[in-house]
User: Fold Peptide hydrolase from Absidia glauca.
Amino acid sequence: MVIKLSARQESAFRAILDTYIAPLTTEEEQALVAENISCKEVDLTALADSAGTDHASAVENGMRFLENAGLPSQYGQILFIFTLLSTTIGTFLLTGRWMALTNMPRAQREAVLLSWKASWIPVFRQLYKLFGYMSLFPGYGYSNTLRGAIGYPHVNGMEPAEPKEKVANHQVKDAYKMLSVEEAAALQVDQVFDAIVVGSGAGGGVIAAQVAAAGKSVLVIEKGKYYQDSEFGPDETSGFKKVYESEGLYASKEGTLGLVGGATFGGGTTVNWAASLKPHDYVLDEWAQVTDNLFDKEAFKKDVEVVTKRIGATTEGIHHSNPNRLLKEGSTKLGYDVKDIPQNTQGLVHDCKVCFVGCRDGVKQGTANTWLRDAEQHGAKFMDETKVTQVLTKNGRAHGVECIHIPTGTTLRFESTVVVAAGGSMHTPNLLRQSGLKNQHLGQHLQVHPATIIQGVYPTNQDMYDGPIMTVVCDVPNADDHFGAKIEVPSVHPALAAIGVPWRGALDHKQTMARYRRTVPFVVIARDMDSVSSVGEEKGKLAVSYKISKHDARTLVNGIVHGFKVMAVTGARELYHSQNAVEPFRFDSHVEPADTVNDPKFNAWLDKIVRNGMPDGVFTAHLMGTCRMGKNAKVSATQVTGETWEVENLFVGDGCVTTYHQAIELVLSILYGENYVTGGVCMNSLSNSFKLRWAGLYNEILFQKFGIPLFSSFTFLCAAMKHDLINFLLLLISFSSIHCYRILSPDALQQLSDQSAPETLDHQTGRLLAPLLVERVVGTPSHTKVRQFILGHFDTLGWHVELDSFTSDTPIGSKNFTNIIATQDPSAARRLVLAAHYDSMALAGFIGATDSSVPCALLLSLAESLNGLLQTPGDVSLELVFFDGEEAMVKWSDSDSIYGAKHLASTWESKARLQSIEVLVLLDLMGTPNPTFHNYFMSTNWLFQHLANLETRLSGHWQHVGQSGQELLPMFPTATTRFTFDGTAMSDDHLPFKDRGVNILHLIPYPFPNEWHTLMDNADCLDPPTIRNMDLLFRAFVCEYLELDPSLL
Assistant:
């Protein structure tokens, strides 16, 4: 323990402890018994006789609470107060009473503390609250006498009683292997990691899994300690000490906000409440609006479903505890929006009383039971109880970390290619500042979802600590805006219950605690709109500043009022809250539950709560936004990809990057965003520039830094594991596969250029293009002839060919269509798909040279020129698709177009084949000089940027002059907008696949060629040098993507 007390200071603190928890007088004990005679299970005598100092470690426990909750600069101030209170003159200065507090009788000491509760001087109000917390939280947390006296059945530090229903199938797995100091020291010399991930929560766990799955070396460093499931604490106090920041609760500098955060392996996902809510549509609409539709609402919803399934989030297996049942019943009676909360427990019965300090059954699917297990299977290494103190940088580039092994004090330095800071919104900005970053937004814009507890006492036992935790949510009616509140049920055990209501004297508090088993708690959580908060550090401790806005305070109060109404109509007879200035409420005995909402006295009391305003007991378990992403360093701390503006290869991969008001359903959106970045790590995560299709952003990041393209649509889930104890963005990655990408050397590019055969693509005599320059209207002989030509080509090459033939209704009657699928290696697990359509528009004399004779010819050339290199089996096969029926039969519409693409996407979806597609590259409108390509999807931006880079590297082998003598300009000009984000506005064969979650690279020039959909789209409009350049570009692209060696041709 850092804080040491002198004898005088200890005597003053003991006097305070024995005031907040004081032995009652005979008269007071009689009053306690008379008031609670029906509480048969409560030992009222033991409760009456208990004192704060009865527990042998009472002083030590109280000072530990101060050490954890306060800042070093405050320690000396508190000790000075203790010194003053131990003297006559000092007590007079603080209280106006000419007697040392240590010499006062209990009644006078109590009067002093109660006067501070309502003092006009803020420091006295803060001392009243702090001394109460220092006395009551440890007192009811560690004293088995007090815990037993109020009827709480669990003895501190001992195994809990068997639940009513045992989990049918425990999921406890083997322990993780944590690196020893000796093993870690050896790695300093022997290894350069591909990635070091700082933090193991929703963001870090997902990122580690995805990078490790790519075959890359990963080291995960966690500040907290790792516990196997069976080692988690059996009660709230021992659990808080093990797995929470500052052993459970720390406060803002102003003392206006208590903060709760996980500090263990798995981070917030280990201590969350298993709740997995999906964000409301209005929240998604806000994200889309604030990001100019960078956020893809529909894609996000699909990713949420993927993550929901991955973490086993469902309402199956839920049976509600008494308090959750009452919240549901009361909300329904009042017409409030109420629903069951999906639990990430795989549908198993989970009657866990203390899951918020770790799931002893291993049922809850946090990162330690999902993503980190995946990382472990792919060779990732883990080190716990190790604090990263600095990210190592050189020449503006991150290259490793320096850290301290906490138990031994050993300093270690590890090298890596990339560093991902994912230690949470409290720690990540401090780490970046300690590493030399100066961005003004680091540590700013903290969002917290302020919360407060209200309690109702019922005529019979409700046992708030028993049964599944947090299974029902009520959305508080809010007519003004979407920054409203939610009501849920926390699992409140004695230590938290003791500080949940204002202390109004020793007898009053013991009266309240005697009714502990009959009490139901609701937690009211607000979606903050404009409160001001930030995070920093003071002498190694977190320093949070928080000032709640008037709007957010009104939101909380509105939630309190509605919560009390729910309690009232379900039979609560006494109502408690944290406003010091407003006394608790008791219904008159004649007022029936059904009549309570119309009771004049009750409504007058609610009006008083509204007038009083801001609750005194406000806390948060949702911490977000301290390294927000954005368009430039003037408005954000990180880029839209999560990479810091100041240091290359240094990324933020947790809820810090959230940029806008977050939904209370955060977790679904960093597990879900991670996922839930999909997440992606920047599990699209969930969390942050905000295209919640970070899937692409992180594809880009990992490609740039590792050469790893990540696939599958991971969208930045925000935190749908929900506002559980750590509702911060759980960025979870959910791509199904990862493929490496190798850059070709200049010599290899030269070889590809030398092996070009432009004559095959000549528009007059080329054997691959000339046969396609004919009318190809569906159902005509020439259409059939072109199909046979394509089939014959692949038959000659020895490829596997499938025909997807079907009949579909069209405006001119039923038509037969046939898609052609040519696969080099059908046994491969994954596919790189390039596609074009081979039919032409139903216009007499229309050839469609660009639309799409040339794209088809380029695919045929690709297969022929690389066929020799493609013979060696690999994980990824090249697959070429020729769509039929792209053109309209009469007039383009949703129903009269892309017949073949619709059918094939649906067929492959039913056969679960879409999951094997890493990316679908669609070619269209190619062959005229100087096309300009844009990127339409963030998920494949990394690939688009690679093509632009490849064009630059091929410039020495390029045709720079067109057939008519014009200069051929870059097809991927650097001045083009990086993201066009218009992939759904342009109808083409990609849409049915895009809608099913396939990553799309749509290579279609814009503006369209002048000849588009006219009779001028024939051989005369084609430019052979441009076609030759495209042919070389696509051959080099496929070689790099599939890691082919051109020297073997």
Summary: The first strand starts at residue 192 and ends at 198. The chain has four domains: 1-151, 181-249+260-274+277-312+358-443+624-683, 317-349+450-620, 746-1048.
